[in-house]
């Protein structure tokens, strides 16, 4: 029981959060326990791949809901989704002794601003109930209490900017930056079909862009040369079927996050993508390969690749 109290637990809900947990675990004194939310085939595949690469996971425990028993035994938490309503509730009830916030893509910077009380404790552009707001305030207060005792840190591959870094230090919040060093160190060589890679997006699934605009973008990029299409984990079979019909497109579905796949690239790649936080993580894993990452706009398929949307 005493060993359980010393051993940290990572509570993760997405493949990127799981990768972030592996990066953090590589720096810990002891292997960590991972509470792995079931929800997609890619989560299980990612966990298996990370373990095969030697991730310092003492065990991976699948769960639904809140892993109350695990969280109560392990009082040092690494949290994948700091905005999660389940985390807010668990933090309010169990009061962990130490917290590390892991990367959650585009929400990473938003969470920092919420911690600094520059915004409400909520995901951007999301309306919350009174209960969620109350629990968010409780979770933030708990984390700031830990910060005053130097028991709150952020482990991130994203740039937070000098202003945020100074403000975090003033509150006693340690930032532990990384460049996906463990992922790069354990990468396995992989033969990507061709040297042009297009990253699939869930924006059409989420209704952020119209499907015909998305498919027009893919078709326009394919017209410029053969493409290896790496699907997003939330794309539907219907979407992938439509994409696969374009001449020159090879759907390259490994069942793993793109960071784990492309970290093994040995030749320069041209990576095409819609705006996404993955441009940051990929810039780290492709460092030194002379690869390029070009952000596009699906509303206007042919654009200047150097223009920032």
- What is the number of beta strands? 12
Highest CATH level, the class of the largest domain: Alpha Beta
The percent range for strand residues is 15-25%
The chain-level structural class is: alpha/beta
The CATH topology of the largest domain is given as Rossmann fold
CATH architecture of the largest domain: 3-Layer(aba) Sandwich
Strand order of the largest sheet: 3-2-1-4-5-6-7
| Overall tally of domains | 2
Unreliable segments (pLDDT under 50, ≥5 consecutive)? 300-309
Shape: globular
The amount of helix comes to 25-40%
Radius of gyration: 20 Å
Largest sheet: 7 strands, parallel
Mean pLDDT score: 91
Please give the count of helices.
Answer: 13
What separation lies between the terminal Cα atoms? 52 Å
* H/E topology pattern: HEHEHEHEHEHHEHEHEHEHEHEHE
Outline the structure in words.
The protein has 309 residues and is α/β, with parallel strands linked by helices. It folds into 2 domains: 2-184, Rossmann fold; 187-295, Rossmann fold. It has 13 helices and 12 strands. The strands form 2 sheets. Strands 3-2-1-4-5-6-7 form a 7-stranded parallel beta sheet, sandwiched between helices. The chain has a 5-stranded parallel beta sheet with strand order 10-9-8-11-12, sandwiched between helices. Strand 11 (270-273), helix 13 (278-285) and strand 12 form a beta-alpha-beta unit. Helix 5 crosses helix 7 (130-148). Residues 300-309 have low confidence and may be disordered.
